Amino acid sequence: MNLPNLVSLTRLLLSPLMLFLEFLQAIALFILLALTDALDGFLARRLKQETDLGKVLDPLADKTLLLIALYVLTYRFQMIEPALLFSLLFRDLFILLGGGHIYLTKGFVPKARMLGKLTTAYISFAIPLYVLFKLELLLYPAYILISLSFLDYLLFYVKTLSKVKLAPDP
User: Fold this and answer.
1) Where are the alpha helices (DSSP H) in the chain?
2) Residue 87's domain is classified under what CATH number?
3) Which of 57, 70, 80, 93 is the least buried, fewest Cβ under 10 Å from its Cβ?
């Protein structure tokens, strides 16, 4: 396993700890793990170690981190409305199922979309600021980005599945 994938795996495995930590500890862990998202991508590009495993592991770790953080902030600390958690969960389930379907029918692992990356980065930035400083205005762009990235993934999914794979000439 290469270094970028190890960083992603660490994020994936440490994210559930937020379920058991006190508020400030959970936020500190969230911030630390969110920073590893940028680190693994940087390392993969810099070391030229982008892999199909990384294309799956990195977004899975991102989704796990954000969904657990939102779950904790919604149900354990009652700081965020459930709508944000469920809108992100719906989008992420679509991405995972759609990506799996593309892999099974088209034979390749789709790369993360730029709007999806932007959404993840924005939510990772906005959540600590929202909960520490009560900046409610920061949540509205998150809903917009989740919706736009869902539409972007949906269009990519439809476009990818509509491409007919031609049989090679004999």
Assistant:
1) 3-14, 23-46, 52-71, 82-106, 114-133, 139-162
2) 1.20.120.1760
3) 93
pLDDT under 50: residue ranges of the chain? 166-167, 169
How many Cβ atoms from other residues are within 10 Å of residue 112's Cβ? 17
CB neighbour class for 121 (10 Å; exposed up to 12, middle 13-18, buried from 19): middle
Residue carrying structure tokens 């990195």:
58
Q: Give the pTM.
A: 0.90
What is the identity of the amino acid at 125? Answer: F
Residue 168 covered by a domain: no
Q: Is residue 169 part of a domain?
A: no
Q: Give the pLDDT of residue 7.
A: 95
pLDDT of residue 151: 98
CB-based burial of residue 14 (10 Å sphere; 0-12 exposed, 13-18 middle, 19+ buried)? middle
- Is there a contact between 87 and 145 (Cβ–Cβ < 8 Å)? no
| Parent domain of 32 | 3-161
Rounded Cα distance, 84 and 129, in Å: 15
Domain count, the chain: 1
d(CA 45, CA 36): 14
